[in-house]
Amino acid sequence: MEIEALDISVVFNALSKANTLLGVDYDYFFIEVIIVMLAFIYSGHFLSFLLCVPLHLVGWILGKIDPHIFRLLSVRASIGAVKNKSLWRCQSYEPF
Predict the structure, then answer these.
(1) 3-state secondary structure of 64
(2) Residue 24, exposed/middle/buried by CB under 10 A (0-12, 13-18, 19+)?
(3) Domain boundaries of the chain, sorted by first residue
(4) Tally of helices (H runs) and strands (E runs) in the chain
(5) CA dist., res. 18 & res. 14, Å (int)
(6) Closest by alpha carbon to 74, among 34, 14, 26?
(7) Are the beta carbons of 82 and 92 closer than 8 angstroms?
(8) pTM, to two decimals
(9) What is the mean pLDDT of each run of 10 residues along the chain (96 residues)?
(10) Nearest alpha-carbon partner for 58 in 48, 70, 42, 76
(11) For residues 80 and 3, what is the distance between their CA atoms, to the nearest angstrom?
């Protein structure tokens, strides 16, 4: 018995990927721009724009490892820690 290869349409692949701008997630790109602009305002040197290269490279590598990494991190930051983790030994929101 031979297993047939699944037919995955191009539309499904495109809709399941994260939205990117220049190879990184939208949210990460705007955070990167804000950090570079704040560095420029603080220092006043145009060399601070070179900070975008390593920041963009880190975001691009993390995006290649997991395309949804920044969404996962934002959900993790918004939910926070669960107080009964020591009781259940997992992230359970059940009070009992």
Answers:
(1) helix
(2) buried
(3) 19-88
(4) 5, 2
(5) 9
(6) 26
(7) yes
(8) 0.68
(9) 67 75 90 95 93 95 90 84 77 68
(10) 70
(11) 43
